[in-house]
Design a protein that fits this description.
Blueprint: H1 4-18, E1 23-28, H2 39-46, E2 51-57, E3 60-65, E4 70-74, E5 79-83, H3 94-98, E6 114-120, E7 127-131, E8 137-141, H4 148-151, E9 155-156, H5 162-169, H6 176-181, E10 186-187, H7 191-201, H8 214-233, E11 274-278, E12 281-285
Parallel strand pairs: 9-10
Antiparallel strand pairs: 1-6, 2-3, 3-4, 4-8, 5-7, 6-7, 11-12
Helix pairs in contact: 1-8, 5-8, 7-8
The chain binds a DNA duplex through loops.
Length: about 290
DNA sequence: ATCTGTCCCTGGACGC
DNA sequence: TGCGTCCAGGGACAGA
């Protein structure tokens, strides 16, 4: 599931494929839950335009167009943004995968989950957005139009401080993991990196936020930054669906300590990693190292 | 204001 | 082999 590192890796790669190229044609699937802007209006609004910059806000990508409009993209949990011509088994369903031997895997061809395709005047590779579960979002913002989803975002996870986290935890009954996942407090943290940073900071995910000390908040933020930065450097986590725009897998799944490792020994003390539900999410922790 | 539960969607895992 | 059932998970929203 794309979180800050995966979105940032996507941003860095897709920026070069998007910025400065004029959109000649836009293909979409039919109107659905996925489109916050009606696909017809989206196609009309994007055709002929040029992306001038691509920013990341938490887990959102914001492409600014040359007419002042902005294209808002969210990858949800199964969203993939990539260049035409790439090949990856993660872009295929299991049945399509097994039908092809590795040598025979052709470049990706748009399927029913490919909700957006931007083709460019220069005739070079198009940019595609695919999302099997449709938890992702696309919206075209008029110049100056606000978007509550963006307005609500808290401080970006890479810029958050221990002091900010500490203030946010005061008086809160919620589990600390739930607070870390709250995008209005810290933007960009999802299930994987919440579990990883709680492990690295030695804090149990179920601890009430108000019971987390100032020192632990510093430790959590330090661990969070380290984890996110390391994940960006290794290309993100490809645990289920994530592929980078160039079709390559990330590498951070091999470095994670607890996420999706229940039953495996804790890398620090050897105690089996336990899996529970916290904040309505699968949650992995070491019962000995995390208090 | 804060918190909890429900819903959106689909493929994959699992049981019979 | 094949079918049915359950589950994951980001985030919006309703209701307590």
């Amino acid at each position: 599931m794309p979180e800050l590192p995966e979105v940032e890796v996507t941003r860095r790669q897709i920026e070069g494929l998007l910025v400065g190229r004029r959109i000649a044609r836009v293909l979409t699937t039919a109107r659905s839950y996925f489109f916050l802007t009606d696909p017809r209006r989206l196609r009309r609004g994007l055709t002929g335009r040029c992306v001038t910059r691509l920013d990341r806000r938490g887990k959102y990508l914001v492409a600014t167009l040359d007419d002042g409009k902005q294209l808002l993209l969210h990858l949800g949990m199964s969203g993939q943004l990539f260049a035409e011509g790439v090949t990856s088994p993660r872009l295929l369903s299991a049945s399509a995968r097994s039908a092809l031997t590795p040598e025979k895997q052709a470049a990706f061809a748009p399927d029913r989950h490919t909700h957006l395709q931007l083709c460019f005047e220069d005739g070079g590779p198009s940019v595609l957005m695919r999302d099997v579960r449709k938890f992702g979002k696309v919206r075209l913002l008029e110049p100056g139009e606000s978007e509550p989803r963006l307005d609500k975002l808290g401080v970006d996870a890479l810029e958050a401080t221990g002091e900010q986290l500490f203030r946010a935890t005061r008086g809160r009954q919620i589990e600390i993991k739930g607070l870390l996942l709250d995008q209005s407090v810290i933007a960009g943290v999802g299930n994987i990196y919440a579990d990883e940073c709680l492990f690295r900071a030695g804090v149990r995910p179920t601890r009430r936020a108000k019971r987390v000390t100032r020192r632990e908040c510093d430790e959590l933020i330090r661990a969070l930054r380290e984890t996110l930065q390391r994940a960006i450097d290794s290309g993100g986590s490809s645990i289920s669906d994530f592929v980078a725009p160039d079709g390559r897998d990330g590498g951070y799944q091999d470095e994670r300590c607890v996420y999706a490792r229940s039953g495996e020994p804790c890398p620090v003390c050897g105690t089996p990693i336990r899996k529970i539900v916290a904040a309505q999410r699968g949650t992995h922790f070491c019962p000995k190292c995390q208090r």
